[in-house]
Design a protein that fits this description.
This protein is an all-alpha fold. The chain has one domain. The protein is built from 13 helices and no strands. α6 runs antiparallel to α13. The longest helix is centred in the first third of the chain and has 28 residues.
């Protein structure tokens, strides 16, 4: 029986998806702490290594076999993109409040609409244009709010740029994700994506790598475990309910980011950030009415 036809209570996919999003948000806070300690590069390098150690036994136990050449090429390409998007995201995250960074990252699905038009030949409709304009205005509102409160420091400006770069890379990631899902299992995708990401990051290890302390290693290992469990929870939920039904739950990440940013890092959530995220989410809703919705950036990190 296909996963979507399993006889589960309708509430269960919502609860499982909400749990997955909450766990991803905790992972973001943990990785921000680790990135503050050893830098975003080292946090991602060691998290990739922990991720491979966690996923390798699961891949083997589920009958994993070495992928074909075409699949391996896709894994390598997505691993390179994943290394760039995750490192730039966490690099920006240590320069911005958690909620503000998550809000800016929500623009990624809107960027993917235009990339799909260029790379996959998909038609851009009026809804997509309106959605993109709303998302762009949302980003401007968040940026203008920071300028209105204080002079935009060089560090904060680079942080905003890094989060937006991460969103662009994640939009590319979404395009290749569609192709990759047709040739590989979720376990294979997760394992080889983390493996190739770690491989590409290790090229800079002679210059940038440092050994984290025990406490930071524990944080990074916990981040890798939470990311793996969250991906499996979301995979289970999306296999049993339509994506368009579960998409709104993805945006609860902002609520968790605001709470964790306040509780862990003493970060305040501004009115401008709230207004900006509302505009971006409305834009994604409009886009989703005529197209298949996708995960937000935060759930692939």
């Amino acid at each position: 029986m296909p996963p979507g036809q399993h006889n589960h209570h309708p509430v269960m996919p919502f609860l499982v998806a909400a749990s997955g999003i909450a766990l991803f948000s905790v992972m973001d806070a943990v990785m921000k702490s680790a990135s503050l300690a050893v830098g975003a590069y080292n946090a991602m390098l060691f998290r990739s290594a922990f991720g491979v150690l966690l996923m390798l036994p699961l891949w083997k136990l589920t009958g994993g076999r070495w992928p074909a050449r075409d699949a391996l090429r896709l894994h390598a390409l997505r691993g390179a993109i994943s290394a760039g998007l995750a490192t730039s995201f966490f690099w920006g995250l240590i320069r911005l409040p958690l909620a503000e960074a998550i809000a800016l990252s929500f623009i990624a699905p809107l960027i993917a609409l235009y990339l799909a038009a260029v790379m996959l030949g998909e038609k851009i409709g009026r809804n997509a244009v309106m959605a993109s304009l709303l998302g762009f205005v949302g980003v401007l509102v968040i940026g203008a709010g920071r300028l209105g409160r204080e002079e935009l420091s060089t560090d904060a400006a680079w942080g905003i740029g890094a989060i937006l770069l991460s969103a662009v890379l994640y939009a590319f990631n979404l395009i290749f994700q569609r192709k990759q899902a047709q040739v590989a299992s979720p376990q294979e995708v997760a394992l080889f994506q983390m493996g190739f990401a770690g491989l590409f990051l290790s090229l800079a290890a002679p210059w940038w790598a440092i050994m984290p302390g025990t406490g930071t290693l524990v944080e990074i290992g916990a981040g890798a475990a939470m990311a793996a469990v969250s991906l499996m929870l979301l995979s289970w939920a999306y296999g049993r309910a339509e994506a368009q039904v579960l998409l709104p739950i993805e945006y609860t990440a902002f609520i968790w980011a605001a709470l964790l940013g306040w509780a862990v890092f003493a970060e305040a959530v501004t009115v401008e950030t709230l207004a900006g995220v509302v505009l971006i989410v409305i834009g994604c809703w409009i886009a989703a009415r005529k197209s298949a919705p996708t995960h937000t950036e935060q759930t692939t990190l």
